[in-house]
Write a structure and sequence with these properties.
Length: 233
Amino acid sequence: MTGKERREQLLDIGRTLFAERGFDGTSIEEIASVAGVSKPVVYEHFGGKEGLYAVVVDREMARLLDLVTRALGGGHPRQQIERAALALLEYIEDSSEGFRILVRDSHAASATGTFASLLSDIAGQVEHILGDEFKEKGFDPKSAPLYAQALIGMVAMTGTYWLDVRKPKREEVAAHLVNLAWNGLSGLEPKPYLTTDHKARQKDLKAKAKEAAKEAKEQARAARRNGADPASL
């Protein structure tokens, strides 16, 4: 292997072992053994276990932050929230080992550690989106930071839970998250869907039209029973 290839191999092995056993439960000896090299090779590339762990964490943080940052760019605020939730769930699904490392470093509810720092960075971006939306609706934009923290915390905690259960599918999880975040408990949609899911949107519109037609018929029947003109309803 070239030096670059060996470095990538050690990072991959370290990432897997750190995810399975944590920092304290992983040793340089084990990393070297799995890689088929001697301990000095690991020290040569990273200076020790701490150096290897730091690079793994930095890479995972950069990847997740990039995914969410790109998701928050442009579009309607609801769609931005949808894309951000999907980005986090996509990262969890495709990079479970990386997410386990970040969460182990600091739980989603923790105020310290690299994961908490990452969530704070994301909340800062969401704060600006909510602030603009609040101004447009006549709300106090000073409360945007509080709502941003609440929103990001909700998504992060749900992601931590979903990491192990993996049910339902990530699109459905994202739809439920946005349903709560956008509509609130008092206005929950019974069958939430993402606005980018056109098939689900058409199905929902048809269901609402059918319900409206049914309600109109019932009103017409009631009017006839009471001797009123249905056209006047």
